């Protein structure tokens, strides 16, 4: 986990939260700046939550539920699921097995392609006449 921003973008719960937020904001015809002003945060924070670069906070979820008057505290419920499930790194299929093996390894060998140009040179033959 190098930098937290962007590492969890593929988390389906964070993506769902972002999509619901965009949907409510678009339906209300609000810009990020207007919504941020109403919530008391920065437009950059709204952007990071909407794009999945940052996971939402409990306070933001409660504020969004209050502002949009969502049924059943929609944002808070999604936030609870995100917190319960934890953050998931986006790894390619089959990759976790390699991570486990690498952690158990005592020696790693790296194989790289190498060519020797002197080895592949053939003696020049005179042109045929």
TrEMBL record:
PROSITE patterns: HTH_CROC1 (PS50943). Pfam families: HTH_31 (PF13560). It comes from the Bacteria. Gene3D superfamilies: lambda repressor-like DNA-binding domains (1.10.260.40). Residues 21-75 form the HTH cro/C1-type domain. One of its GO terms (molecular function) is DNA binding. InterPro entries: Cro/C1-type_HTH (IPR001387), Lambda_DNA-bd_dom_sf (IPR010982). This is Transcriptional regulator with XRE-family HTH domain. It comes from Actinomadura viridis. The lineage of its organism: Bacteria, Bacillati, Actinomycetota, Actinomycetes, Streptosporangiales.
């Amino acid at each position: 986990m190098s930098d937290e921003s962007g590492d969890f973008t593929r988390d389906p719960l964070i993506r769902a939260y972002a999509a619901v937020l965009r949907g409510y904001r678009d339906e209300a015809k609000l810009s990020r700046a207007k919504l941020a002003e109403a919530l008391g945060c920065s437009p950059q924070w709204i952007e990071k939550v909407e794009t999945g670069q940052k996971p939402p906070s409990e306070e933001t979820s409660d504020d969004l539920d209050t502002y949009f008057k969502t049924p059943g505290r929609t944002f808070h419920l999604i936030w609870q699921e995100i917190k319960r499930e934890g953050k998931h790194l986006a790894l390619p299929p089959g990759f976790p097995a390699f991570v486990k093996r690498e952690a158990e390894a005592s020696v790693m060998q790296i194989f790289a392609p190498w060519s020797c140009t002197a080895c592949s040179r053939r003696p020049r033959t005179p042109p045929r006449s």
